[in-house]
Amino acid sequence: MRHDLRNEGCPDEPAGRLATIKKAMIEYLYLGRVPYNEGLRLQAETAALRLESRVDNVLLLLGHPPVLTLGRNARRENVLASDELLAKRGVSLHEINRGGDVTYHGPGQLVGYPIFDLRSLVNAKGGRLGPVDFVRMMEEALIRVCGAYGVRAGRIAGLTGVWCGPADGSSLDQSSDRDKERKIGAIGIHVSRGITSHGLAFNVTTDLRAFQLINPCGITDKPVTSLEREIAHGVSLPGLEEMAHQAARQFGLVFGQQVLAVESMDALRAQAAAANPEMPAEDTPLQVPAEVERLHGDPERPVRA
């Protein structure tokens, strides 16, 4: 069963764009807590289905047991805990192919894996959406989630992710007191043949002491925070599943697409088995251009955790 999470539908679009995006939608699954290796497997399976156009853009939202992940640009010294301490605390460690350095996943954190075909998306000027624009739109969705609970959040120039503070209300990237900036959401993606994977980690009720095991995303001078810590006194937060619904709604609004909730991976597989895949246009590149791929390794560019 599939449920429409957006009553307002897609926003009005110029006629020239309707032909490009009229079939595009976001299919959303909330999977609960999933072991990290299983999350990797589900991403690979879904990406293969998306590449064959057997499913639409898919947003997997879930949680993980305690785990550290090291992206392509990670430095092992940013893991501060010894292997023995990690084992004692039940924290596993994985080297993966997303951009960025080391980050933490664990209970109370909403993890999102958008398996999107960038060729199905357009930027504000009507051109194809690139990886950097895609990351910016993910940030915008999380900023709006924060806003839905009365928490001010934004960006910092030169740093990918979503940040809270400073408390004085000044611009996040112009404050003189930069220690007040607190990271609430980390983002790091991988793009292969136009299909995105990996994605976001949003601290909702996360035990922030776990971040003492690492230099989060290689950043040593800015702390992490959670939505629970930032909300006004007396405001209660819903459970992680309802938070996932909120995130899915915001993705739909930011990307201008209808969002449909899918009950399970089995339902998505059944849909894929019945689909007639459509081949991409002949002029659509299946590989990310080399100049774009190089952005993933540039510490001054935004496609990193």
CATH architecture name? 2-Layer Sandwich
Class computed from helices, strands and strand pairing: alpha+beta
Strand content: 15-25%
Biggest β-sheet strands, sense, barrel: 9 strands, mixed
Helix content: 25-40%
What is the rounded Rg?
Answer: 19 Å
| Fold-level CATH name | BirA Bifunctional Protein, domain 2
- Using the coordinates above, name the CATH class: Alpha Beta
In which order are the strands of the major sheet placed? 1-12-2-3-7-11-10-9-8
End-to-end distance, in Å?
34 Å
What string, H for helix and E for strand, traces the elements in order? Answer: EHEHEEHEEEHEEEEHHEHH
Descriptive account of the structure:
This protein has 305 residues and is of the alpha+beta class. The protein has a single domain (2-297), classed as 2-Layer Sandwich (BirA Bifunctional Protein, domain 2). Helix content is 27%, strand content 24%. The chain has helices spanning 15-21, 36-51, 83-88, 131-148, 227-230, 240-255, 265-274, 290-293; strands at residues 2-4, 25-33, 57-63, 67-70, 92-95, 102-105, 109-115, 153-156, 159-164, 182-192, 195-203, 258-262. A nine-stranded mixed beta sheet has the order 1-12-2-3-7-11-10-9-8, with helices on both faces. It has a three-stranded mixed beta sheet with strand order 5-4-6, with no helix packed on it. Helix 4 (131-148) crosses helix 6. It is globular and about 50 Å long.
